[in-house]
Every structure is written in structure tokens, then in C-alpha cells.
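Pipeline run #58 for the internal structure catalog. This entry was flagged by the ingest filter as a single-chain record with no existing model, so it goes straight to prediction. Upstream metadata was stripped on purpose; only the residue string is passed forward. Reviewer on rotation: M.T. Logging verbosity set to normal.
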Amino acid sequence: MTIEERSNIDIIQEKDNNIIGEPYETVYQKPGTLIDVDMHYCPGCYHSLVHKLLMEIIEEMDIQEQTIGVAPVGCSVFAYDYMDIDMQQAAHGRAAAVATGIKRLLPDKYVFTYQGDGDLAAIGIAETIHAINRGENILIVFINNAVYGMTSGQMAPTTLTGMQTTTSPAGRDTNIHGHPIKISELVAPLPGAFYVTRQAVNNANGVRRTKKALQNAFNYQRLKKGTCLVEIVGNCPSNWKMTPIECTGFVEEQMMKTFPVGDIKLPKAEDLKNLKEA
């Protein structure tokens, strides 16, 4: 190697060092309320994304010390390992009942449950409906991926008509298995339901709308007017037998036909006026 070639290499290395050493503006970082550990979720699963949104909101609202979450049984059973807030584990399906006890004992805390369709809509449907009917001042975050993810893909109450699962290998037959249960539409008419919405996180706009819905629900707890339910259309690459990209298309083309996104029950105008004054 000639002296000239060595000089050129030195110049390049010096430029690289200068670039690396320059201070950069931080435009994004994960929230401090999200514990810095690897998550156990399958690649492409929306659970990790929704966890991040929740923790971003709690950090932005500066309510980390005032928030209590209730973890379910299901894929998100280890939510307490990722959320740096007070968390309580509930028995299978009983998250809304546990949250009721916490909120009644600590009425000034922000209390939310995080549940999948098996936990909330199957074994826990009684606790869910009665908590909402009573108007418990809690937030229920409902992840609907239309399948039992943790236990190898059995049919869920929300499994789509014709959708194949390990317990409906020929596809869900409404004559045998009944129809997919639309939880949000089911509970919205209850007098204790204050805010009910269904959102999705399969694209950037959906992520933004979901975050806004969750922010609204946390804020509405201050009014103590009833239960908020935010349903999020989820996915399950492993049990749907799809790639994450294929799941995104399936959510858009199939899931949203049965579970259309949008607000289902909104607060009254006078209640929102009271929120601004609170």
C-alpha cells in the first residue's frame, strides 16, 4: 500500500469518526415507562405495539405513579414484565372484576385492564358485561385477534365465519358454532358504558387513531361517568399461518368486514365540557 493510499484511508476514517461523534437530534425513542427487555411475543404480533402506545400515553400524561394495570391470562399474561407501572395479575377472565375492586378502593387512580378475546369474550364475558353495566370507572383494553393465541389456535368467540382454527378445521360454521360475537356492539347499549370504540393498528393512520382513542379513554376516567372500552383489532401470525405482512392485509380485507373500526358510543357534549373544566 502506497503512502497516498494510506493517507486516503486515514481521511476516510477521520470523516467517519467525525460523523459518528456528532450530536444528533433525538426524534424518537421508546417511552421510559416501557421496561427495556425483550418481549416474548411472536414477530409481527400487535401486542408489543399496543404496549408501547399505552406506555407512551402514560408517560406523556405523567400518570405513571397514578396508574394501575390488570394483566389477563393469555398471550399478554406477562404484560407486567414490560410495563413499568403498578400491575396486578387476574385469574382467567376476571380482569374486569379485579379492576373493579382496585378502582373502588383507589378511586383516584387510573385503572385499566388489558385482555384478549379468549380472556374477555369467552371465560370472562360475564365479568366484562356486568362491570360495564355497573358503570365501573375503568378502561378495558380489548385485543381481538379472533383466535386463542396462547393455546395453539383454537376457535374464539370472535373467530370469523369460515375461518379455520384447530377446533374448527373446516372453518367456523354458524349453524354449529354460532356467529362471531361483536363485543363492542354488545356492550355499547348498556347504560354504564361511557365510551366504546374499535380501532386497528395495521397501518400508521390506524396507530395514530388508536393512540388518540386510548388517550381519550384515560382522560374520561377523570369524569367518573362509566366504563370505557377500546377494542383493537389484532393479529396472530403464528396461528393464522401468515407472515406479518399477510396479516396486515387480512386485518384490512377480512377482520374489518366483521369488526369495522370507528366510534360506537361517544360521551355526551356536556360531559366533554365538564372534562375541560376538570
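catalog note: The mean pLDDT is 93.
catalog note: The chain has one domain: 35-277.
status: ready for reviewer M.T.
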